[in-house]
Structures are given as C-alpha cells and as structure tokens.
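The methods section describes the discrete structure representation at length, but only in general terms. Each protein is reduced to its one-letter sequence and a matching series of backbone shape codes. I believe one specimen quoted in the main text would settle the matter. An entry of this sort, consisting of the sequence and the corresponding backbone structure tokens, reads as follows.
***
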Amino acid sequence: MPSTPSSDDLDDQAIDWQTLLHSGEASARQRLEYQRWQQLSPAHKAAAQEAEALWGDIGLTATAEQHRARPRRRAFRWASGLAAGLVLAVLGYGGLTYMPHWSDTYHTGVGQRQQWLLSDGTRVTLNSASALSVDFTTTQRIIKLRKGEGLFELADDPSRPFVVEAGQDRVQAKDATFSVRRDADQTRVLVATGAAQVEHQAQTLELRPNQQAMYRAGQLVAERQQVDAHALTAWQRGKLIFNRKPLQDVLSELERYQYGRIVLPDTALGAMQISGVFDLNDPHNLLRTLEQRYGLNITYLPFVAWVH
C-alpha cells in the first residue's frame, strides 16, 4: 500500500495546486483533478482549505488595490542614474559578501539550499548564502554558524550536548528541530519541535515549539515570540510564505535569494501588505511574480532591481 503523505507534504502539494490554479494556465482537466485531490482524505481537504485561505489574502488590502490601479510610469532619470551607481557599489561590496569561505565545512551560494547528514546522524539544511563549520569530539558537538541560516534536526546523543554558536550567541538543545539565522544586524532562533536554550550576553531563554527569540545588534535582552514555525521554515521545502507582511520586509527577504540589490525608495509603497507563496526553485522569477500579482513597476538593471 502507498504510504500516507505527511502533513508537510500535503501542505506543499496544496500550495502547488494554488500556484497552478492562480497562474492563469490551469486547464479544465487540472481543475477537476484538484477537486478529486481534495476528496482523497480529510487531511487533503484540510490542507486545501488552509492553502485557499492563505491565497485568499493576496491582493485584498486597500493599499494593494490602490497600487494595482496606478498607471505604469517611467522611472525617473535620476533613479536610473542612482541605480547605475549602486551597480558599482554592489560589484565592489558584493564580491566579498557572496564569496564562500572555503575553510568552512559546509556552505551554500546565493539562491542555493542544501542538506547534509552529519556524522552523529543530525540533519542540517543550509539556506541561501550560508556557511558553518563543525567541531565534533567525544564530549561535545559544536556548530559555528558563520553567516546565513541553518535548520538543525538533531540526532539523540545524551552524552554530547549540541551547541550552535552564532557570534556571541549560543543555542543548546538535545532532542529538537530548530533554526538559527545570523544576519549582519541580528540573530534569530526559532524552535519547531522540542526545546532549545538560548544564551545571549547575560540572558538565557528557554524556547518551545512555535517560539522564537530575535536579538538585534547591541540589544541586551529579547522576549519570546509566538510564531508559525511551519511557515517560517518553508524555505527548506522551496517555498517562501508571507501573510500580510510589509512589501519592504518581503523585498528584504527576496534579496537573500539573488545577487545584487532590490531598491525601494518609496516608504508608503513599502508599507503595502503582501500575502502569498513564492517558489524558491525559480529564483529568477521571484520579483516577476510579485510584479505581476501587485502591479508593481520594477526597473531591472545589472545587479539592481528598482521598485517604484
């Protein structure tokens, strides 16, 4: 008998169905197949309803309608000149930013995601432009996250604590699935299952499933936040899920998966709420998808995308 799909598999399949059905390319036969897919089990039906509810948020805000109705306009000449200047800045700065550290045990390039099985049985998945090193001994297991984001599905080994170091921050866990993200100005720890202990300067936090702690540069303490760990770790399944996120935050996230910069000078436009699912397996079309769904104007230059 075929194995029953996991909830993650069903969620991904439901999202894929919504992507197809809203692409404008779905045939009548495919729509009928979707109806049949929903009836396979109560779990299929529940996954379909959740994906449809998420997709229903797309473009329903008043701000989105306002910007969708705007006539397309040419970019200002000064904008193109500034963007051209940014090309030089990106080329000079980005060459070092995106250069992989060959001394690191594991690393990924921009737009890449990769998974490894460590010697103790722990599964590590690295997100775009990430790097870490591994130091396992007979008494301890230490991961040094150099940059980017890693998801850790721990193997049980009571005799050796598992520690992830992200700069001055330390995360320790035993039987857990959690992610650590290290950006230039902040560190985020997110627990999906189990529990993890976060040490930041003089503060120690215990995180449980669907909780995260975020520390900005220079910040002494942080509070636990309740989040949707399944949505925030969807990148490992090749998806980015946004639910009423400001456009500025969405663009900052999309920028992680492509070379160059995404520039948005309009703060009012940056506040527009975005909901939707984006396919990381097609990184070149991430901005195109956003452009088509929300009627944005985007000027594309080498290593710079100017949103207006």
In short: Residues 57-103 have pLDDT under 50 and may be disordered. The longest helix spans residues 77-97. The first strand starts at residue 106 and ends at 107.
